[in-house]
Structures are given as structure tokens and as C-alpha cells.
Design a protein that fits this description.
single chain, transferase, Rossmann fold
């Protein structure tokens, strides 16, 4: 994991230059919104000034530079965006500061809605998480619980899924839900999702749907559904190491279609 975190910190500044990551994050948002239409309703109510409730408190793990975070923020009350790579969190903080510079009012709303946290989250009571009682500054009290936990393209970087699911179960309120997205392990060809030079921190070549669903149930989640939500074309290496010196110029890139899973479950 440490090698992967170092890699992601180093790549944070240039991460958003890849159009693929924007397209994938937008697809993840739309999949979550389709599964949770109440989020869309809440955004519309906020815009109309008719919102009856404050909206959901959301936990995002592996937020990266905030590509999904900032897309999700208008639909929720607050999103605590967690990542283990300091460079990614620093880039997200820079985006929030830039938003405040560009428009004081909307930037202030965004800063209020998004709480970036750098931590490798393995404990639902981690002092790095916001306290349940905002006035508790000791860091020793109970931690905030969430209505929804999300992640995108993170699961395949995490070696211990049962520990992750146990942690997320502890982070949720009763009735809280998971909505995790990642590409599916559909066989040996799924390895081609990553070029060979970017294998640091890759623990799985996609998620096996039935296995992950069983792990969710074992962690205590009910109403578990793990199934493909969209398919996305991605450029891949023609052979291992093809891109070691960068994508070859003047050569038509090979593409593959990768199915993405939406993993949903509810804490009783």
C-alpha cells in the first residue's frame, strides 16, 4: 500500500490531465444517482429553497483529487473525502481554495460541504474522522456516522476487503448504505486495465462480483446487490510493457471494454 500511496502522491498534480478519469468519475456519479434518486430530488429542492431536510452525510474513501467528490457535493449535505495519499488530499484542498477565489459565495458553500482528510482508514473510530459532537475538540470522543459511503476505482487497490467492509459498516448509521464502484474481474484479460508500469499498489485486477457480495453479507450488510452498472472503453497496452516509454506515437491504440460494478448494501 505504501508504494501505491507514494505513486499517487507523486501523480496528484497531473492526475486530472487524463480525460479518462473524468469520464469514469462522471459515470460513477450517474450510477450512484440512478440508484439513489433521492439525491437528485434533494439537489432540486435546495435549488428551489424547498428542502425539508439537510441532506445526506457522505463518506468517500480513496477520493483522490476529488473528481467524484466535487461532482457529488451539490447533492448532499456534507462529504468527508478520505485518501491515504497526502498529495491527492493537497490537490483537493487546492481545488477548494481555487473555487473560493473564483466565486466567494459558491466556493464557501463548497468548502462547507467538503471535508478532506488524509488517513488510511482502517478504524471507524479513527480520530482523523470528524467527531460526532462538533464541539468535541479532544479527538477522543465518538466519530461521526454517515448516511452513505462511496468509493470509485479504489477497491482494487485495497488488499483486505473484509477489513474495509467492517470499517465502513462501523462508519455508517443504521439504515446507511454503501455505493462502491470499480471495474469487474471478468477473467485474465481484466489485467490489461493497467499498463505494466502502473502496477504499484494494484492488489486485484478488478472485483469478482459474487465474491465481493458474499464479503459484504459477511460484514453484516443486507439487501446486497453487486452488478454491472456501465461499460467503458479504455486504451490498453498491446503487450506487457508497451507503454514503458509512454503511449506509442503514430500507432493506433488498442481499446477494450471494461464493465464497472456498482456494489450496494444497507446496514440494518
Amino acid at each position: 500500500m505504501s508504494a501505491g500511496n507514494e505513486r499517487f502522491s507523486a501523480e496528484a498534480a497531473s492526475w486530472d490531465a487524463n480525460p479518462y478519469v473524468h469520464r469514469a468519475s462522471e459515470n460513477a456519479l450517474q450510477a450512484i444517482l440512478q440508484a439513489r434518486p433521492d439525491l437528485v430530488e434533494h439537489k432540486e429542492q435546495k435549488q428551489n429553497g424547498t428542502a425539508a431536510a439537510q441532506g445526506l452525510d457522505v463518506l468517500e474513501i480513496g477520493c483522490g483529487t476529488g473528481l467524484l467528490t466535487l461532482r457529488m457535493a451539490p447533492f448532499v449535505h456534507n462529504i468527508v473525502a478520505v485518501d491515504a495519499a497526502q498529495g491527492m488530499i493537497d490537490t483537493l484542498k487546492q481545488k477548494l481554495a481555487k473555487a473560493a477565489e473564483d466565486n466567494k459565495e459558491t466556493g464557501a458553500r463548497l468548502q462547507e460541504a467538503v471535508t478532506p482528510v488524509c488517513v488510511l482508514l482502517e478504524d471507524s473510530e479513527s480520530p482523523a474522522l470528524p467527531p460526532a459532537d462538533p464541539s468535541d475538540l479532544s479527538g477522543n470522543g465518538p466519530r461521526r456516522k454517515f448516511d452513505l459511503a462511496i468509493s470509485h476505482l479504489v477497491l482494487h487497490h485495497i488488499p483486505d476487503h473484509p477489513l474495509l467492509l467492517k470499517t465502513l459498516f462501523g462508519c455508517l448509521k443504521s439504515g446507511g448504505q454503501l455505493a462502491l464502484t470499480d471495474f469487474e474481474n471478468f477473467g485474465p484479460e481484466a489485467r490489461r486495465f493497467h499498463p505494466e508500469s502502473r502496477m504499484d499498489g494494484v492488489e486485484f485486477h478488478g472485483i469478482e462480483a459474487s465474491q465481493f457480495a458474499e464479503q459484504m453479507r459477511a460484514a453484516g450488510f443486507v439487501d446486497v446487490v453487486v452488478k454491472p452498472a456501465w461499460t467503458m472503453d479504455k486504451a490498453v497496452e498491446r503487450f506487457p510493457g508497451d507503454w514503458n516509454a509512454g503511449k506509442p506515437k503514430g500507432v493506433e491504440l488498442e481499446t477494450m471494454a471494461f464493465p464497472f460494478l456498482l456494489c450496494r448494501g444497507t446496514k440494518p
